[in-house]
Specification:
Protein name: Copper binding protein CusF
Number of strands: 7
Number of helices: 1
Distance between the termini: 75 Å
Oligomer: single chain
Radius of gyration: 24 Å
Shape: flat
Keywords: Signal
Strand order of the largest sheet: 3-2-5-6
Order of helices and strands: HEEEEEEE
Strand content: 35-45%
Length: 104
């Protein structure tokens, strides 16, 4: 009986941290899918100042900004404009309302 008790205590000591870590990981995965809180809406014109089109990602939606073209967007403050490689090209803040952001 004493060996069984020792085995159960040992198993609990090993499994408890693993279960806790798995629970933490699962909550992190769930939180990644939660949309960010919306800030005030910001009207921004994105302008491409290069001779080639640029592919961007805005709010999870792919957009193509034509060569020497522009596009108006209305997004919540805090929205990030990403390049095709995932780099942040612009983080839109409320102070950018009715401004033009140029890209090359």
């Amino acid at each position: 009986m004493k060996k069984l008790s020792t085995a159960l205590v040992l198993a609990a000591c090993i499994i408890a941290p693993l279960a806790s870590n798995a629970a933490d990981k699962k909550s992190e995965d769930n939180n990644a899918n939660i949309a960010q809180a919306k800030g005030p809406m910001v009207h921004v014109t994105l302008k491409n100042r290069s001779d080639v089109s640029q592919d961007l990602m805005v709010q999870g939606k792919p957009m193509t900004l034509a060569a020497n073209g522009e596009m108006k967007v209305n997004v919540p403050a805090g929205t990030q404009v990403l390049g095709t490689d995932g780099t942040v090209k612009l983080t839109i803040v409320k102070e950018y309302d009715h401004a033009t952001a140029s890209f090359r």
